[in-house]
Amino acid sequence: MRIRKYDFNYGRRALLEKAARGVTAAGVLAPLWPIIANGGDITKAYPDELVSIEAYTKGKIKPGDILTANNVEHVKDLVSSIVYTQIRDMGRRILIQEPLKDITKLFPADYLEATLRNKGKAKLDAGGNVVTTDGGPWVGGNPFPEPTSGYEAMANITLSWGRHDYSQYAIRDWDLNPNGEVAYQYDFMWCEMNTTGRLSADGPVWKEKKDLLRYQSVFFVSPNDVKGSSFLNIWKYDQRQFPELYGYFPAFKRVRQFPTNQRFEPLVPGISLFLSDAWGSGDPMGTWGNYKILKRTPFLGAMSRNWYGGRHANWERPVHGGAKNQTFFDTAMEFIPECLVVESTPTGYPRAPVSRRELVIDVRNGLFPSYMTYDRRGNPWKNNCPSYSVYEDGNTSYKVNGKPSWSFASVMFHDIQSNRMSRFVQAKQITGGYPTQHTDKGEDVYNRYLTTTAIQRLGK
């Protein structure tokens, strides 16, 4: 029997064939990025079965449905093994929403503009660092919108975590014990500023610091037993070098420099997140290796429309599920037509407790809806399930330069082996009045938050 070109399984076969042949351009019916550049409907790059969850599941799941233990089998191949377990065994529920057609809702506006403007200007030098075609540091946006390798796909995340020149996230965090009870609740600030790959009018390099990639700090403001604990990461531009890592603890009243490879430990008791886990790319790319694109596949991810600013004054969100009905955030996911599954191993960390990590990366914006780590025996260990959004919700929005901002909205980090969950939101503000900002507002944020003197002052 002759199979029609666009039969039901055409899209999935095409993704498999692309991966086998090493085809790098995103899209099936048409290349994706020319459609994006022309402001078109990105769903036109894919057949119905890769655009519509209803078509993909033959009507068993459709937008507006809630994924539960009763129907998750129909999408088992579209979620991570840990998320599947959460839904099947722990009462997690996920709202399925209409797929996004407007690419501008998947980026900060100026970051998308830079990605389009600088497309084709990036290359890897002999040391594996991203440089422009004339050999200079990267100039902003995703350097590889159509990555040809897992390493290039990772560069799109690593070079600019928050996709703003400067971001400070007011984080409200809840850490649950194996019984599903909140064991710890922390308020902390996470600040990050790129020195290269910047989008601002003052140029792609901040204060001539082209040898650096970013400054990143975190300081805890609540509760009192950890208040003042602060950390500072100074990233080199050379991705083969470890960041400088400093910490300040009020009990010792001094700044201490930590071993450069001490990145697989919790910052404070109870939290499941390691520095290595940040943004799925918490270590320099060159300190991991064996990058592979394992496959191309559709997936479910919380990539848009997940901000609760119009529903909660402090941008927090409802919880459900687990033994005490408070383990999971309410989250909306959409059907993503094409993702890369990228694997890598911690080659620069001989004593790492992680054997490998696996990121599912959305080809539309280069970000991950799912990040998994595996222990030394190769068993699933931790799952990072973020949600992203343009910051608009009904009539409420948070704007930067007159436009609704974009960022992550929440993160759930589940250690499936110990059954400990860390879940946090990017809140409007936290204890002490520290606010979320996706811009420096003209302030001297470097001296305020991003030096060893600053973390010592904040600790006091």
UniProtKB/TrEMBL annotation:
Pfam families attached to this UniProt entry: DUF1329 (PF07044)
Organism superkingdom: Bacteria
Protein name as annotated: Uncharacterized protein DUF1329
Organism: Panacagrimonas perspica
